[in-house]
Amino acid sequence: MKHLLLIGLLWPVTTVSIVGSASAAPSTSTLERISRQMYGQLQSAIRGLHKDDASLGVVVDSIESDIGKIPLRFAITFRQRLVGLIRAKHTLRRLVAYPPKALGKTLAEELEAASRRGLDRLLRFEIAVKNNYMIISGHLFATNRNLWLFGHEPKVDLQGYFFISVRIDAEIKYLLGRSKQPPTPSKWALERLDLLPGSRLLAVGIGDIDGDREQELLLLTRDAIHIFEWRRGAFVELRPRIHLDKRALRDIVPRNPVGSLVVTDLDGDGRAEILSGTNYHTAGFAHRWTPTEAVELKTVEKLPLRLPGIPLAKGPGDWLILGLPHHTFPQFTSATFFDWKLGKQRSYPLRGAFLSFARQPIKTPRHQILVSAVLRPDYQLTLHRGGPSRAVWHKLGNKAGIALAITDLDDDGVPELVQTDASYPTQHDRVTIWQLGRRKLTKRFESPRLAAIVGLACGDIDNDGQLEVVLISFDAQSETTTLHVLRRQP
Questions:
Q1: 166 plus 306 within the same structural domain
Q2: Which of 56, 119, 260, 283 has its Cα between 20 and 30 A from that of 105?
Q3: Measuring CA to CA, how many Å separate 437 from each of 87, 363, 405, 443?
Q4: Which residues have CB under 8 Å from 168's CB, separation 6+?
Q5: CA triplet 280, 283, 288: central angle to 5 degrees?
Q6: Residue span of the structural domain in which 168 resides
Q7: How far apart are CA 483 and CA 474, in angstroms?
Q8: Each residue of 4-58: pLDDT tens digit?
């Protein structure tokens, strides 16, 4: 493996070589030290670049550490669509960002040839280093149809915006091929978060609402949305709070309050919008948050969030899936797809009523798949490669919980399903994490019995580079809610 990473199409460039001290087998502290050293030197190199158009980025030519060369794993996406996933075994010939004619030359010769062809002016980008991630965002000008990016010829439109996220992988020995066995299953620990004590929490959401590339934790109550950010080892509530419109309150206060909260970037500006709905109100809400004010979007009247406790899910592309039936309303058998940009919506007939639904595009080592989880009225939980109308991929049997999420929690390229199951009528739920293998399901974690789980979200709430699972449990006897977090232990 001669070269590990080539970023961009640049001339001139700065080449960074990072060397660590020699020692025995790597440990967790060693990897953490290597990571800090690596990104510290990258930051120094980035600061040393000239700010004119001639110097646009950094090429990482070699990274050496205590255990040899460290592989970096990253993906390039154009408008959320996977273009390529580079692994440690790829050489520079698979990474060059030029037409195939240029292959076989040295790095300096290829960059010089690219500069003569004017290809260096095709790319403009910025680099930011945060925690264990290096984030490159910029603009690719589609003036040369022969442009290749990392072994792929992308279909670049006239806008051509792109985003690259690079991180160091903690399981270095496995990626280097020194161990043919996959890493041992991660251990998870269930902790309690003491945020908003005494408040009745209805839903939880996680997302980057201010565009700083760090995720915030959002909690929905009956009259407001509270926003928390991780700062210096503790959660700090951000102001202003998002107060829900009291004019949409129902005349009769519901006996069993429920709510939904989705945090997702609807317009592609890098800041997530906030969609919420409760059975206290007659309509749903959509907000955009800034440090100075919380703006209620006028298109909220088009969102069909008029039924209590309707789950929401983000679909592929720009479609937002709304109006999925809740367990209280099994007679509703269609979902509403809402196109935020065009302001259009259409109904999509589903085969039978769903109690809960989740779908997520998953980037695997070879390609990208769409995984859907469907919980039906007979409590049959099934997984599908693609939409819910596709053939059953995995079947989990009778599961009574209604909280579902699909994501790659441990960043190993294999998706996990986070689901709750309940022991009726005692209403004590537990959380189970399944790894979705090609042929079988592997149980990675099972929590002790909790109170009824009414909210679930996955995200990096403390910005340490690892995903957490945040839960809201409701005790029917005391009518109180508790916030929990599942963390993966090293």
A1: no
A2: 56
A3: 20, 14, 16, 10
A4: 31, 34, 35, 38, 39, 70, 72, 132
A5: 105
A6: 14-175
A7: 9
A8: 333 333 323 333 333 333 333 334 454 445 445 544 544 444 444 333 323 333 3
Residues in the chain: 490
Q: State how far the Cα of 50 lies from the Cα of 297, in Å rounded to an integer.
A: 41
Provide long-range contacts, Cβ within 8 A and 24+ apart, for 383-392.
383/417, 383/436, 387/359, 388/350, 388/351, 388/354, 388/357, 389/350, 389/351
As a whole number of angstroms, the distance between CA 368 and CA 204 comes to 27
Dist. CA 199–CA 479, nearest whole Å: 10
Q: Is residue 180 situated within a structural domain?
A: no
Confidence class of residue 453 from pLDDT cuts 50, 70 and 90? confident
| The one-letter amino acid at 339 | D
Structure tokens at 155: 């279909």
> The domain that contains 257 carries what CATH number?
2.120.10.30
Who's near 252: CB < 8 A, 6+ residues apart?
none
Structure tokens at 429: 């739920």
Residue 182 lies in a domain: no
249 close to 242: Cβ distance less than 8 angstroms: no
Q: What is the DSSP letter of 279?
A: T
Query: Which tokens sit at 24?
Result: 């025995």
The full DSSP string for 179-191 is -SSPPPPPEEEEE
DSSP 436-477: E-SS-EEEEEEPPPEEEEEEEEEE-SS-SSS-EEEEEEEETT
pTM: 0.58
Which two structure tokens, joined as six digits, stand for 424?
Answer: 């009726």
Whose structure tokens read 């945090």? Answer: 263
**Number of domains present in the structure of the chain:** 2
Same domain (yes/no): 109, 203: no
CA-atom Rg of the chain in angstroms: 24
pLDDT at 169: 39
**Beta-strand runs (E) in 386-449:** 392-398, 404-407, 416-422, 428-436, 441-446
266 secondary structure, DSSP code: S
97 and 214 in a single domain? The answer is no
Per-residue pLDDT of 188-226, as tens digits, reads: 888 899 899 888 998 899 988 988 878 999 999 988 999
The SS3 assignment for 50 reads: coil
Q: Quick one: pLDDT at residue 339?
A: 54
Q: How far apart are CA 472 and CA 416, in angstroms?
A: 20
Report the first-to-last Cα separation within the chain, whole angstroms: 28
Can you say how many angstroms the Cα of residue 325 is from the centroid of all Cα atoms in its chain? Answer: 25
